[in-house]
Amino acid sequence: MNKIKQHKGKVILAGAGPGDPELLTLKVMRYLQKADVVITDRLVSTVILDEFVNKEAQVLHVGKQCRKGASTPQSTINELIVDYALQGKLVVRLKGGDVSIFSNVLDELQVLVENKIDYEIVPGVTAALGAAAYAGIPLTARDHSTAVRFLTYYKMDVIDDNVWKDLASTNDTLVFYMSSDTNDLLVKKLIESKIATDKHIAVIEQATTPLQNVYSCNVYEYAEKFGNSSYVSPTLIIIGKVVVLHQQFKWIENSNSNENYFQPVAKSKDALSRA
Ligand code: SAH
Q: For the stretch 176-189, what's the b/e string if a residue is b when 16 or more beta carbons lie within 10 angstroms of its beta carbon?
């Protein structure tokens, strides 16, 4: 149709950081000030939307919540991005944390290229880095670890037995995204695979937000201390020798709150309209 001829729209695929609104980059803030349309994930602070998006912009919430069912299908998100860009608009597609870590950015890049739409990718502070900093856990601290891995265990079949052995024997720091619901099993698998007794685990709820909580202990004590816990979303898990440093270097006390910092997906789902 003729709208394709006229378009000079552009899409900014941007990371909003893990929660604390001040972890937004200046670059993303400037794009939010110029945007015609902002299409945002659930794990983006409402402070960012309220304070930095210009008042004329249209804000669309397309929350997804792993395992909790309700979500905006990726195909709908792709259509929205493409439609607005083809109308000549500056679209900011805002994602929690960093754009490239455990996100559907590939689908979005593919439709942008297929439709010959210009884009930029602007990184953000991923949850692992935000959580580690705000929990006082240096991820590759000297004499503790020389590497860090970003992983997920949200589906039981993502990791096979050989991988468990490797994960249990490595000295790399392990960071698990989207895995708080399967945490008991994760710990069990690592213990069955004979993880070393000097490895500790930290479960970090709502990292970098005022509602942050960190629960940490030796991996072998986890079942007794925190087994069967249900954590507030979003939660990240860090495992390794470095986690022991949390006790010494933590600089934020637990909020001891179990309220939600981010809007639950059910609410944001029906907000797929002007906000
Ligand atoms: N692109 C995001 C990750 C999206 S996957 C990033 O780079 O951070 C969603 C998962 O990220 C959640 O299930 C949780 O494991 C983690 N996560 C995101 N924000 C978090 C936060 N503030 N605190 C703890 N975990 C968080």
A: bbbbbbbbeebbeb
The counts of H helices and E strands in the chain are 11, 10
The token pair at 266 is 């059910």
Among candidate residues 10, 41, 98, 189, the one labeled active-site is 41
- Per-residue tokens: 16: 């909003």
Q: What is the pLDDT of residues 20-70, one digit of tens each?
A: 999 999 999 999 999 999 999 999 999 999 999 999 999 999 976 655 556
CA of 97 to the centre of ligand 1 (A): 6
Cα–Cα distance measured from residue 55 to residue 183, given in angstroms and rounded to the nearest whole number: 41
Query: Is 64 known to be catalytic?
Result: yes
Asked if 183 and 209 count as a contact pair (C-beta separation under 8 A), the reply is no
Instruction: Output the CA 3–ligand 1 centroid distance in Å.
Output: 37
- State pTM to two decimals: 0.93
3-state SS assignment for residue 30: helix
Told to judge if 41 belongs to the known catalytic residues of this protein, a careful annotator would answer yes
**What is the domain partition of the chain in residue ranges?**
10-125, 128-249
CATH-assigned architecture of domain 10-125: 3-Layer(aba) Sandwich (3.40)
Distance 126 CA to ligand 1 centre (A): 7
The CATH number of the domain covering residues in 128-249: 3.30.950.10
User: Cβ < 6 Å from ligand 1: which residues?
Assistant: 18-19, 43, 66, 95-98, 101-103, 126-127, 131, 177-178, 204, 206-208, 234-236
- Collapsing DSSP to helix, strand or coil, 135 comes out as helix
